[in-house]
């Protein structure tokens, strides 16, 4: 059975890819000319057959300075704490990826290794409080060190030019939409991958992925394995026939049993408590140029199921019913004829919080597997949980090789009966209200205003294969933080962040 790709099918596939461009965030400048790689270019020039092969990789090095950041594993260290504990950390991290791939008419394969290094990082390699059973906090080289491991290894069967269905099986990255709920987390020194099976059905009308997977647990000096007790499955579809828009619809299921939290003795990232959470959502996005220089995106999702809240009763917590939701609205205007092609945008993001820890229903939105670094501040304090976020953005492209972004954020808790959650989705503070001013917790009497952040980012494409990027962020603490850390022994202060990064493809 053979289905030739018609011009309509081909055009549909191109549009589905093009409209996933994210307008409302900084994007690194593209290389001045395409670069196939130092190995690929000479091999392909001498032998056309070598076009089927892909040999290459990338090395990225970044220096980060964090002042006013909590350091996991350091006693008493809390975000925005003014004195009484160390809250300053600066370090180098480097990531090396190396790959070999082969593509034939009806199948392809890729194997990609990864080496992640860190120096001078004070953060523990793994830290959790309370520590789950059968796990132990570990100092190590920091949470972004994983010296040698397998990043991806998969086989793909199919050819969408000839037949609408393909199958991809093995260790792989997964990214959907703008990565608010499912992303590769590329900013991290290791990233995120899944051991997954994914069936794709693509026509001129739509493209849909049907997948089941288990997230891989990074663990330094051990071969990374997937969490056998944490399953992530779903359907994500792109519908191309909505006039002037692209519509995404999705159903996502995360099913974790009680063994998931201690699946490995010292993971780099904390693992989940027991939960069965089902997410139904949709995203409507304007196609390029369909509304002139205007663009917009609307997204909403509702969740139901059950959740074991370890804030209540610790490891012995009972499961509560889960009901939560999130909304995102963003829009912008591009001054196409002005110098540097400025785009001015605004975004509002909301995720529900828990109105009462004693209710039968858990109402904190589950952020799933996001790339939060893109959306809620480059300083990485915030996740899409119990939050209101207003975000103005100005992006500039003074030259094809240079891009700039100026971003601001205003944050409020959605409900002061719930915690202030960190970028990884963990609650800051304890089970109930802490003694006044002595740290984070749940206290309905505090103001909901968390604070504001300002970020400035610049990227420059030096050559076809090398890019530079620098950034600065400042967080102005709000009344909620000031009240949480108001005691004489703590007090609060603003936080600062600086980074400089180079990426070289080879």
Structure description:
This protein is mainly beta. It is 5% helix and 46% strand. It is built from 3 helices and 21 strands. β2 (88-103) and β3 form a beta hairpin. The protein is globular and about 70 Å long. Mean pLDDT is 92; it is low at 1-20.
Quickly list its features.
single chain, 506 residues, 18-stranded antiparallel barrel, 21 strands, disordered N terminus
Q: List the uncertain runs.
A: 1-20
Taking Cα atoms only, what radius of gyration do you get, to the nearest Å? 23 Å
Biggest β-sheet, characterized?
18 strands, antiparallel, barrel
Q: What proportion of the residues is helical, as a percent range? A: under 10%
Structural class: mainly beta
Secondary-structure blueprint:
Layout: H1 7-18, H2 40-46, E1 53-67, E2 88-103, E3 107-119, E4 146-157, E5 165-172, E6 194-202, E7 206-217, E8 225-239, E9 245-256, E10 275-286, E11 294-308, E12 319-334, E13 343-351, E14 361-362, E15 387-399, E16 402-413, E17 420-421, E18 427-428, E19 449-461, E20 466-477, H3 479-484, E21 495-505
Parallel strand pairs: 12-14
Antiparallel strand pairs: 1-2, 1-21, 2-3, 3-4, 4-5, 5-6, 6-7, 7-8, 8-9, 9-10, 10-11, 11-12, 12-13, 13-15, 15-16, 16-19, 17-18, 19-20, 20-21
A few lines on this structure:
Helices cover 5% and strands 46% of the residues.
């Amino acid at each position: 059975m053979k289905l030739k790709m018609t011009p309509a099918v081909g055009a549909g596939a191109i549009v589905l890819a093009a409209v996933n461009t994210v307008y409302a965030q900084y994007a690194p400048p593209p290389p001045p000319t395409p670069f196939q790689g130092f190995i690929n270019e000479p091999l392909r020039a001498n032998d056309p057959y070598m076009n089927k092969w892909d040999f290459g990789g990338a090395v990225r090095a970044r220096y980060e300075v964090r002042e006013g950041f909590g350091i996991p594993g350091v006693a008493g260290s809390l975000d925005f704490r003014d004195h009484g504990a160390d809250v300053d950390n600066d370090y180098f991290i480097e990531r090396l990826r190396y790959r070999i791939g082969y593509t034939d008419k009806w199948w392809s394969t890729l194997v990609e290794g990864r080496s992640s290094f860190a120096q001078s990082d004070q953060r523990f390699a793994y830290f959790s409080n309370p520590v789950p059973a059968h796990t132990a906090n570990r100092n190590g080289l920091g949470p972004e060190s994983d010296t040698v491991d397998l990043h991806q290894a998969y086989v793909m069967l199919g050819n969408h030019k000839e037949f609408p269905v393909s199958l991809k099986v093995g260790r792989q990255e997964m990214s959907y939409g703008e990565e608010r709920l499912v992303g590769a987390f590329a900013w991290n020194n290791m990233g995120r991958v899944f051991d997954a099976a994914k069936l794709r059905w693509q026509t001129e009308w739509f493209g849909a992925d049907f997948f089941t997977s288990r997230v891989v647990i990074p663990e330094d000096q051990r071969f990374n394995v997937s969490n056998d007790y944490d399953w992530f499955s779903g359907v994500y579809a792109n519908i191309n026939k909505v006039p002037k828009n692209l519509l995404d619809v999705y159903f996502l299921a995360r099913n974790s049993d009680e063994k998931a939290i201690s699946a490995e003795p010292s993971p780099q990232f904390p693992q989940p408590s027991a939960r069965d959470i089902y997410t139904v959502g949709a995203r409507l996005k304007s196609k390029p140029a369909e509304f002139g220089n205007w663009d917009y995106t609307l997204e909403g999702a509702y969740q139901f199921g059950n959740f074991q809240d370890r804030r209540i009763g610790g490891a012995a917590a009972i499961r509560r019913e889960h009901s939560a939701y999130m909304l995102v609205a963003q829009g912008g205007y591009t001054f196409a004829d002005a110098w540097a092609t400025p785009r001015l945008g605004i975004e509002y993001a909301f995720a529900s919080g828990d109105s009462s820890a004693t209710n039968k229903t858990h109402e904190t939105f589950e952020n799933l597997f996001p790339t939060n670094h893109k959306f809620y501040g480059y300083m990485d304090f915030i996740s899409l949980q119990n939050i209101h976020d207003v975000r103005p953005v100005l992006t500039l492209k003074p030259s094809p090789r240079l891009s700039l972004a100026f971003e601001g954020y205003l944050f409020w808790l959605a409900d002061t009966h719930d915690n202030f959650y960190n970028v990884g989705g963990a609650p800051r503070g304890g089970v109930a209200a802490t003694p006044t001013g002595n740290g984070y917790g749940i206290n309905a009497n505090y103001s909901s205003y968390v604070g504001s952040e300002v970020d400035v980012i610049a990227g420059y494409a030096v050559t076809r294969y090398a890019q530079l990027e620098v950034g600065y962020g400042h967080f102005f603490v709000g009344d909620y933080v000031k009240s949480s850390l108001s005691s004489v022994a703590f007090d609060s202060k603003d936080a600062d962040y600086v980074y400089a990064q180079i990426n070289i493809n080879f």
